[in-house]
């Protein structure tokens, strides 16, 4: 008889352990977890000087092995004067990832203990670390110390898990130390191992066991570019020791996670995404499901260290503290310009000035009782997830150093994104960084500190240079702008530009491809377009119907799934168009040549061909991969001229006329179904051909041909959406546009009713479209478009989604009034279209679908990425336009009409359609001394007491603005001083369009769509924009400052 | 994303093994005298006791066949074997009724083996019993004992993945101990298919429970030294082109297990010779 006793002796060679843990869940259920660990001796040290470990290299199932990573030529610096590898502990990775990311740090051993801890604490940091290891450039190596028998550490009774892990790290370092010593005997080359930590206790214990230890700061300060690296060390690390000393807490403490969760579950607390008002930095709001209107969060104490974008938990304040949203503009820059970054003001979180601003606010909202209910207010009690990223900005000139030198000092960084508060930065390079665009990251926001603290990441270059501004903009909108790596370029066809359609009809690439080369296909695009996605044709069929074809570039023929090129495209998600630059999603060779449906050459295409009756009814649809030969590439203007020219009667022109006729029918049908007409004409920047300096701004025109192309693209997208949904009900890539909640329109409805007596119906898209059509003012042709802009801003944005994640009714595209929609027609510049192409190809049986497109999870990941990229690309494009508008108008005197879009108690926002930008005019800038003003909130009317009598402006009014050259000097005073001279004869009131483009930027973020504006002329005011030439020393002027002068209504 | 990396980029699994390594394997034969043959197998942390009675007079009428012996299998999970202690209800006596090999309905078993409801786990047990009895029906020389029954009873004391495979191995040993005539050893192991970040696949030999939870995998049994497969079970979805690689690794794994079983049997034989039992 043998016993059942555990048979340790039987195992061969390796000793293994298993640990048994009993876990008790919150419900009292007991769970037993047993984990086995197989300790081994064949995990290599991966040092290139080591010959002993070579035998331990084991391949994977394909026999692939990984070469050794750690260099035989290890780095040396002033702190550690011998060649060495470093072993950072968990805290160093968590706090100083940016330092480790720097090119100066190489040959790093990442212990498994540390890696697991990093993973448990922060997945993003873990992913960054894994990417560093995978790239191989910086020679990071993951050593699985927990699996090696010599380095495994058993937890002692009574030892905390942290102590055990620290011990495991020390043990690992010790082993490396001894191992490399032995290796040195063979090779004669000695390399030390240094444990880098920030924990005093750990360092001391390390020294005791004979491990070379070093504090991260000491380590970095021995390096060549130590100043730069020292700045990157997280402020949080430094504060850890100092924190205990400070007694005064400025902000209320956050609730514990469990308390928040319980509260949210019970409905006493609410969770949502925090956003800051673009006009008032002390007013935030949170959208929560249980309230149909957003919860207002007023004042620093209530905002309680939340930053725009964070996931927060809030507590609703009692009803008597409910307020109206702000009708006043409060800017952080002016409010807090005297704060000293070196000294923390302890007296209060809110300065006297801020409190006054808020009290004024409160009075105002109390006064306006008549109108509507006050909005619920709330206080932030905790943050679930910070949404911090890198921020681009410039140093606050008011915190400029009085003396130069390299001593460390605190400075403020003013982020470009005005919704982000100032960030306190400790730096040794302050004097160099002034006047530069710099990238920083926020580390922490303590209760003791009024501002968040962060650290320097890198400098982009001087403020207002084209390169720095462009890069800043790309960084701020997270656009991938680095050149394509070699692995991507390797995926391109070898023939390069010489690639041709195969002539041999037996070629496998022509398999199942329809030959449409005989058709009269042409493309219509904006002038100068190189990446031609689409081409069209139309012809009359014998039965009287029309055959219409849309041919889309066959990108998926070149971009195969699961290649480096495909991965890169899916990360980029979209091509980004800036004024002077295009950041491609696909390499140039494909985008502008091989895929592009250029005229006179044969290209592969993916075609949708319909049979359409004279009335625009669709009789049949065919999808096929094809070959085409475009006869001509028109610009919209050329196409329009050709259609209008009665003398041209060739077949191609006839085809285009047919297309135009059918497109009008289709458009009418769409309009009848309730599609919204929210056209968004854009601004075009004209630049000098050689220097590409912007010289003028023009509004883009809308021609009939624009809508011709648009109409057929919509039709193709809808047809494809139906087809791929039918084939893949769970995983089709679709696009939806949700219906906006009625409460979004409340404010606009009220404004229209009060000022014009108009009503806006929002029950359905049809009702909205009809009532928008009725919003006209005979005396002002622009009014309708202005209302359309405002209506557009009330809507939610369209998004890509995977069909399995929503119910069919949710697929609806509100704006287009279509039941189902996708993007198919621009695969060169949008990744969603690439996915749709693959799915359509599979749906028609052309090729099997790649497994990644079968997986709902993968698709959801793609969707959320491209939604994000798409939005960012739009924002970056607009920000670029606005920067160039500023550059183009610089130093010119232009008079232009503008329209009041929003009105506050102390200022108003003017939209200038010709430049496509908005500007803020504040009452206090109208004259040297702030004129008295009265705000009638119910009627949206602001009356200003000028020096020669009062005048008033109301919402939707037309004004005229002018842009004269301005003098230097401290902005406010100088503007006031020149005002009287400029405004001829009239006792002038002066407007400042302060902050100018920089300020407009934050509205850009606020609005999703920029549409045309129309307006009603009630008052005619003359306003002037003044551009300050770059005020030397004032780094605040990241864009030319715009000043405004306004004269009395004439 | 799971809490652990199932396979780290360095090629190590959660418990420190590489892709082609099986867990610690130890086995004993003749652990109880109450049955004709018995065995105890520990495979990693999966532990199974098996006892075999037979050939005996069939206990139920429907287990009688005039041509061959029928093989009946009982599988019983101990209440303490999993992560949660199992509460057993009234109608839950699934281990009492023996299952006859032919005429069995086949059941669709679910994946995620360990965390199943009662109804599903009952079904799963039925399926295991059926799979085991079919596997051994093809290897035992049942025609030598018509109108009799070979009863295999398996008790799972601890579950940590590859349970069916361990049951097969334990049953093989117990059948050898009982002296039931058979052509060769039936040995089994499992293979998972891991998807690398670049979509290439990596077969992982011998799944533990964490891997079983996260990855698709097959259970595979072969007869003797040949690559003849007598059991192949796939409870989850896996891409067809991966199956071949998984099978190749699994066949090697079964060969390795066969060696281990063979050692155990020879050791046991020597022991018996020393004790003078033979």
TrEMBL record, chain A:
What are the recorded GO MF terms, alphabetically? 3'-5'-RNA exonuclease activity; endonuclease activity; RNA binding
Write down the superkingdom of origin.
Eukaryota
| Entry keywords, A to Z | Cytoplasm, Endonuclease, Exonuclease, Exosome, Hydrolase, Nuclease, Nucleus, RNA-binding, rRNA processing
Locations listed in the record: Cytoplasm; Nucleus, Nucleolus
Keyword Hydrolase among record annotations: yes
InterPro entries per the record? Answer: Dis3_CSD2, NA-bd_OB-fold, PIN-like_dom_sf, PIN_dom, RNase_II/R, RNase_II/R_CS, RNR_Ribonuclease, Rrp44_CSD1
Entry annotated with the keyword Hydrolase: yes
Q: Where's the PIN domain?
A: 84-204
Which stretches make up the RNB domain?
A: 513-846
Q: Which GO terms describe its cellular component?
A: cytoplasmic exosome (RNase complex); nuclear exosome (RNase complex); nucleolus
Gene3D superfamilies per the record? 2.40.50.690, 2.40.50.700, 5'-nuclease (3.40.50.1010), Nucleic acid-binding proteins (2.40.50.140)
Question: Where is it mostly found?
Answer: cytoplasm
* Protein name per the record: Chromosome disjunction protein 3
Automatic annotation (TrEMBL), chain B:
Q: Which Pfam families match?
A: RNase_PH (PF01138)
Which family is annotated?
Belongs to the RNase PH family.
Q: What is the lineage of its organism?
A: Eukaryota, Fungi, Dikarya, Ascomycota, Pezizomycotina
Residues of the Exoribonuclease phosphorolytic domain = 21-181
> Region Disordered: what ranges?
84-103
Q: Which InterPro entries match?
A: ExoRNase_PH_dom1, ExoRNase_PH_dom2_sf, PNPase/RNase_PH_dom_sf, Ribosomal_Su5_D2-typ_SF, RNase_PH
What is the protein name stated in its UniProt record?
Exoribonuclease phosphorolytic domain-containing protein
Checking Gene3D superfamilies in the record gives: GHMP Kinase, N-terminal domain
Task: State the Gene Ontology BP annotations.
Answer: nuclear mRNA surveillance; poly(A)-dependent snoRNA 3'-end processing; rRNA catabolic process; U4 snRNA 3'-end processing
Example of a GO cellular component annotation carried by this entry = cytoplasmic exosome (RNase complex)
Q: Where are the transmembrane segments?
A: none
A molecular function GO annotation? RNA binding
């Amino acid at each position: 008889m043998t016993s059942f006793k555990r048979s340790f002796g039987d195992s061969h060679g390796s000793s293994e352990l298993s640990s048994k843990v009993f876990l008790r869940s919150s419900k009292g259920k007991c769970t037993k977890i047993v984990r086995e660990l197989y300790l081994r001796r064949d995990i290599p040290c991966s040092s290139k000087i080591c010959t002993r470990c070579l035998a331990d290299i084991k391949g994977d199932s394909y026999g692939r092995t990984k070469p050794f990573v750690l260099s035989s030529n290890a780095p040396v610096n002033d702190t550690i004067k011998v060649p060495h590898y470093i072993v950072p502990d968990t805290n160093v990775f968590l706090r100083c990832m940016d330092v480790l990311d720097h090119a100066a740090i190489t040959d790093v051993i990442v212990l498994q203990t540390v890696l697991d801890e990093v993973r448990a604490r922060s997945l993003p940091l873990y992913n960054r670390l894994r990417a560093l290891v995978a790239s191989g450039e910086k020679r990071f190596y993951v050593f699985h110390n927990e699996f090696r028998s010599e380095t495994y550490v058993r937890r002692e009774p009574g030892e905390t898990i942290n102590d055990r892990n620290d011990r495991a790290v020390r043990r690992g370092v010790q082993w490396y130390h001894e191992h490399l010593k032995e290796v040195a005997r063979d090779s004669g080359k000695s390399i030390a191992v240094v444990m880098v930590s920030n924990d005093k206790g750990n360092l001391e214990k390390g020294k005791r066991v004979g491990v070379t230890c070093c504090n991260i700061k000491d380590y970095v300060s021995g390096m060549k570019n130590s100043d730069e690296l020292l700045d990157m060390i997280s402020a949080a690390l430094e504060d850890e020791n100092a924190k205990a000393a400070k007694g005064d807490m400025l902000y209320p403490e956050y609730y514990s996670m469990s308390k928040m969760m319980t509260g949210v579950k019970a409905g006493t607390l609410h969770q949502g995404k925090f956003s800051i008002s673009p006009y008032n930095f002390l007013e935030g709001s949170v959208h929560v499901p249980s309230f149909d209107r957003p919860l207002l969060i007023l004042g620093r104490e209530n905002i309680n260290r939340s930053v725009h974008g964070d996931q927060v938990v809030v507590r609703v304040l009692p009803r008597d503290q409910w307020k109206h949203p702000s009708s006043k503009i409060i800017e952080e820059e002016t409010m807090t310009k005297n704060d000293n970054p070196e000294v923390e003001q302890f007296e209060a979180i809110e300065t006297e000035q801020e409190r006054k601003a808020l009290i004024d606010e409160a009075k105002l909202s109390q006064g306006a009782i008549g109108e509507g209910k006050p909005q619920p207010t709330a206080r932030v009690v905790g943050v679930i997830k910070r949404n911090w990223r890198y921020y681009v900005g410039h140093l606050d000139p008011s915190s400029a150093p009085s003396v130069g030198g390299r001593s460390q000092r605190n400075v403020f960084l003013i982020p470009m994104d005005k919704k982000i508060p100032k960030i306190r930065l400790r730096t040794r390079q302050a004097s160099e960084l002034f006047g530069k665009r710099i990238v920083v990251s926020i580390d922490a926001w303590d209760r003791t500190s009024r501002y968040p603290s962060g650290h320097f990441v890198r400098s982009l270059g001087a403020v207002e240079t084209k390169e720095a501004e462009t890069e800043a903009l790309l960084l701020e909108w997270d656009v991938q702008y680095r050149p394509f790596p070699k692995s991507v370029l390797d995926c391109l066809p070898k023939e390069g530009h010489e690639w041709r359609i195969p002539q041999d009809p037996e070629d496998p690439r022509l398999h199942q491809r329809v030959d449409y080369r005989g058709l009269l296909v042409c493309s219509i695009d904006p002038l100068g377009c190189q990446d031609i996605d689409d081409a069209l044709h139309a012809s009359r069929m014998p039965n009287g119907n029309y055959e219409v074809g849309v041919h889309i570039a066959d990108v998926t023929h070149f971009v195969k799934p699961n290649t480096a090129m495909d991965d890169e495209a899916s990360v980029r998600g979209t091509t980004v168009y800036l004024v002077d630059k295009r950041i491609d999603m696909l390499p140039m060779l494909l985008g502008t040549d091989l895929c592009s449906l250029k005229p006179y050459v044969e290209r592969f295409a993916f075609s949708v061909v319909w049979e359409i009756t004279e009335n625009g009814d669709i009789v049949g649809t065919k999808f096929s991969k094809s070959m085409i030969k475009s006869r001509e590439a028109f610009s919209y203007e050329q196409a329009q001229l050709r259609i209008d020219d009665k003398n041209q009667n060739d077949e191609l022109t006839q085809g285009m006329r047919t297309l135009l006729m059918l497109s009008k029918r289709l458009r009418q049908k769409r309009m009848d179904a309730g599609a919204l007409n929210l056209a968004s004409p854009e601004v075009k920047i004209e630049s000098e051909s050689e220097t590409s300096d912007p010289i003028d701004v023009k509004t883009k025109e809308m021609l009939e041909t624009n809508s011709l192309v648009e109409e057929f693209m919509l039709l193709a997208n809808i047809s494809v959406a139906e087809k791929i949904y039918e084939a893949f009900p769970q995983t089709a890539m679709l696009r939806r546009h949700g219906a906006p909640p009625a409460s979004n329109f409340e404010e606009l409805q009220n404004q229209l009713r009060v000022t014009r007596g108009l009503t806006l119906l929002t029950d359905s898209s049809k009702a909205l479209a009809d009532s928008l059509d009725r919003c006209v003012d005979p005396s002002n042709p622009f009014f309708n478009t202005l209302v359309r802009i405002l209506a557009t801003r009330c809507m939610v944005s369209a998004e890509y989604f995977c069909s399995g994640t929503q119910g069919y009714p949710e697929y609806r595209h509100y704006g287009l009034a279509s039941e189902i929609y996708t993007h198919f027609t621009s695969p060169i510049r949008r990744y969603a279209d690439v996915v749709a192409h693959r799915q359509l190809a599979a749906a028609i049986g052309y090729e099997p679908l790649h497994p990644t497109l079968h997986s709902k999870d993968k698709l959801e990941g793609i969707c959320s990425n491209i939604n994000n990229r798409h939005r960012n690309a739009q924002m970056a494009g607009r920000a670029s336009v606005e920067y160039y508008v500023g550059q183009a108008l610089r130093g010119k005197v232009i008079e232009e009409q503008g329209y009041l879009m929003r009105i506050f108690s102390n200022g108003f926002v003017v939209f200038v359609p010709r430049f496509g930008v908005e500007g803020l005019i504040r009452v206090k800038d109208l004259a040297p001394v702030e004129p008295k003003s009265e705000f009638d909130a119910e009627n949206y009317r602001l009356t200003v007491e000028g020096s020669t009598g009062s005048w008033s402006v109301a919402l939707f009014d037309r004004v005229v603005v002018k842009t004269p050259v301005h003098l230097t000097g401290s902005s406010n005073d100088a503007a006031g001083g020149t005002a009287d001279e400029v405004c001829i004869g009239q006792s002038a009131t002066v407007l400042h369009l302060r902050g100018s483009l920089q300020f407009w930027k934050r509205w850009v973020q606020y609005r999703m769509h920029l549409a045309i504006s129309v307006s009603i002329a009630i008052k005619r005011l003359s306003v002037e924009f003044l551009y300050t030439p770059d005020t030397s020393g004032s780094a605040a002027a990241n864009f030319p400052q715009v000043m405004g002068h306004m004269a009395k209504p004439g | 994303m799971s809490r652990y990396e199932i396979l780290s980029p360095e090629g190590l699994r959660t418990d420190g093994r590489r892709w082609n390594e099986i867990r610690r394997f130890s086995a004993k034969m003749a652990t109880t005298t109450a049955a004709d043959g018995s065995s105890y197998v520990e495979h990693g942390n999966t532990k199974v006791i098996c006892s075999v009675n037979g050939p005996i007079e069939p206990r139920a009428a429907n287990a009688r066949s005039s041509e061959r012996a029928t093989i009946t299998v009982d599988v019983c999970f101990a209440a303490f074997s999993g992560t949660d202690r199992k509460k057993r209800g009234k109608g839950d006596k699934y281990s009492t009724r023996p299952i006859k090999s032919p005429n069995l309905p086949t059941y669709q078993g679910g994946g995620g083996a360990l965390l199943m409801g009662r109804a599903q786990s009952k079904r799963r047990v039925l399926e295991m019993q059926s799979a085991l009895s079919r596997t051994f029906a093809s290897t035992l020389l049942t025609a030598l004992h018509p109108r009799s029954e070979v009863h295999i009873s398996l008790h799972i004391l601890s579950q940590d993945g590859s349970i069916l495979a361990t049951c097969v191995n334990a049953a093989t040993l117990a059948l050898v101990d009982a002296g039931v005539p058979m052509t060769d050893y039936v040995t089994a192991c499992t293979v998972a298919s891991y998807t690398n970040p670049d979509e290439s696949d990596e077969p992982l030999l011998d799944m533990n429970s964490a891997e079983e939870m996260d990855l698709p995998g097959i259970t595979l049994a072969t007869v003797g030294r040949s690559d003849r497969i007598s059991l192949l079970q796939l409870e989850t979805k896996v891409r067809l082109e991966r199956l071949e690689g998984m099978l190749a690794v699994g066949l090697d794994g079964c060969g390795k297990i066969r060696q281990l079983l063979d050692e155990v049997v020879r050791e046991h034989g020597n022991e018996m010779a020393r004790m003078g039992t033979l």
